[in-house]
Structure formats: C-alpha cells, structure tokens
Design goal:
Residues 32-50 have a biased composition (Low complexity). By secondary structure, this protein is an alpha+beta fold. It is 39% helix and 18% strand. It folds into two domains: 3-35, no CATH class; 65-145, Translation Initiation Factor Eif1, CATH 3.30.780. The chain contains five helices and six strands. The longest helix has 14 residues, at 98-111. The protein is globular and about 40 Å long.
Length: 147
C-alpha cells in the first residue's frame, strides 16, 4: 500500500453525512435545509402574549421604522460634547416619517416625567438628537413600539 490510498479520501469531500465543510455557516445551511419543513405556512406562536400582539400591531402600522445594528442592538447612542458639559443621546437608522417619531418620543418623555427633553432632528444624517443621557428611556420607548 502506498501513501496515496490513505490521503485520497481526505482530498475529495463527499456529499454524504461525513462531508468536510470549510466553515460553520455552510454546515449550518445544509443542516437547516435538510431538517426544514416543506410547508410554506409561517411559524407563529399559537397564543402570543399581549405584549407580542401589541408590538406586532403597532410596529407594522407606524409611519416610521428604526432598524437595529448588525449585533441586533437598538441604535441609541450617548455622546459628550463641549468638553463633557453637553450630554446628548442620538437615535440612528430611522426610515419613514422622522417627524412623527420625534413627536411620539417627546410625548413619551413627557409622560415619563423627564425634565424638558429637547428632541431635535438632524436633517443632514436623519438622526434624532435628544438633550441629556436618556438611553434607557429611549430604548424602553422603542421596545414598547416593537422595534
């Protein structure tokens, strides 16, 4: 026996269950495709919770949309300006009616008894800038809306 007989099976990956994959995503796609059901009915929970129902309804009916970052986080960022004396919070990745989002956010912050939160639209980069570090309140608002 020569060395060729031992190396040859490793050089040619097969399509069987012992196939050699170059990366995890290829293996995951093939596994998902093999185990995926063939029906085209969307998988929805039989009894969604009231919060899920309200967020699905409100998020689809709103005139604006706030996308998430590649790591699935809300695009709400805090920043310090003017040597740390001016604090601001920015909302990015907004599509649709940005004025409606600003108005809804201002109303929400008033109901949360946050001191006069100044919400300004940055028209150049389509972001909303809020005076103060209000990341938790703004994130809670966006999650309640279903984003």
């Amino acid at each position: 026996m020569t060395l060729r007989y031992f190396i040859t099976p490793f050089l040619r990956p097969s399509n069987g269950p012992c196939a050699v994959f170059r990366n995890f995503s290829t293996a995951a796609r093939r596994t998902e495709a093999a185990s995926a059901p063939t029906s085209t009915v969307a998988s929805t929970p039989a009894n969604p919770t009231p919060r899920q129902r309200s967020s699905q309804v409100t998020a689809s009916q709103l005139p604006y949309f706030v996308g998430r970052s590649p790591s699935r986080q809300l695009p709400v960022y805090t920043d310090l300006k003017s040597g740390g004396t001016r604090k601001e919070t920015r909302i990015r990745k907004i599509t649709g009616d940005i004025r409606a989002l600003r108005d809804d956010l201002a109303d929400y912050l008033k109901t949360q008894k946050v001191r006069d939160a100044d919400c300004v639209i940055s028209s150049i980069n389509q972001q909303i800038v809020v005076k103060g570090h209000l990341k938790l309140q703004i994130s809670r608002f966006l999650e309640e809306k279903g984003f």
